[in-house]
Amino acid sequence: MTVLGAVASPDFGPCPLRDARHAAAQKSDSAASVVSSPRGRLELGVSVRGGRSVASRQFHEGALRVLRPHYLDESGQVCYVMVNPGGAYLGADLFVIDVEVEAGADLLLTTQSATKVYRTRGSFAEQRMNIKLEEGSRLELMPDQLIAYREASYRQNSHIRLHPTSSLVLAEVITPGWSPDGASFKYEEVRLRNEIYVEAGDGVKLLALDNLLIRPPCNDVTGMGFMEGFSHLGSLVVADPRVEQGLADELDQMAREFDAYTGVSLTASIAGTAGLVLRSLSYSTEELNNLLGACTGVLRERWYGQAPLNLRKY
């Protein structure tokens, strides 16, 4: 097992501002753990009927829902668009998403627009996602960018359970929001944690723990070992039986054609499947979207004979 991660704000010693905020966050953790009514909840199950993937289970309440399904090509892959009618995440907001892709089903899940996290005084905004992929299933999770504004604190925890024959592709971009002084890192914290497990013959095993943490207030995250002078961050996570060193080398070489600083890591193989994480730094959302789109386009064409995604929403 290989554990993958990038921590963009280690502890350099005492910091009154940070310590006070961490104490408040711990209180928020306790409060969040007993929240009985999330701001938004979405449950989506997808199965195969008549040669196409369709929703077998769908439920939503509060500030989360999905639009009517559509099909981008003749492959039978169903595309659902998640919508937050409230338009943004605020302090103490909790959103819970449960997705199950049944055997042989194929789901493309995206968002209607960027996820915007505004000032979160008193507590952080949080999204919890549970994903289960059954035998021979596939999930492409392609949300629009996450924008963290001044004094925003956001945590995203994804628990993903895979069958060894299933396929996961997840692409995300983090963008700093506008601030009055034009600085890029005015948010308090952005934490993205992906736990990916594989159902092996002798039990469920951890394939990868991909943990990204950026805390700008007390430490300089702009320099070496952190954001390397860049302002935007993109991630591509792939778990599939066809992941191997040659693919990692190919994607790494492809990334060099873009105005971005990129690294690629591989996990060890568990039950015949392996994971790949590509992390890229740049100055713009568009450049990272183009880079991630090119990488996912290779996978779609090679593995499924599909064209690159065009998720234009305007």
Secondary structure elements and their pairing?
Layout: E1 5-7, H1 16-33, E2 40-49, E3 52-62, E4 65-66, E5 78-83, E6 94-101, E7 106-111, E8 115-117, E9 125-133, E10 138-142, E11 146-148, E12 153-162, E13 167-176, E14 189-200, E15 203-214, E16 232-240, H2 245-255, E17 261-266, E18 274-282, H3 285-304
Parallel strand pairs: 1-15, 2-6, 5-7, 6-9, 7-10, 8-11, 9-12, 10-13, 11-13, 12-14
Antiparallel strand pairs: 2-3, 4-5, 13-16, 14-15, 16-18, 17-18
- Tally the helices: what do you get? 3
The quaternary organization reads as single chain
User: Which percent band covers the strand fraction?
Assistant: 35-45%
Tell me the number of strands: 18
Structural class: alpha/beta
Number of domains: 1
- Helical fraction equals 10-25%
Give the overall pLDDT as a whole number.
Answer: 87
Q: Assign an overall shape.
A: globular
What is the element string, with H for helices and E for strands?
EHEEEEEEEEEEEEEEEHEEH
Radius of gyration, Cα only, in angstroms?
19 Å
Largest sheet: 10 strands, mixed
Poorly predicted runs: 1-14, 30-35
Cα(first) to Cα(last) distance is 42 Å
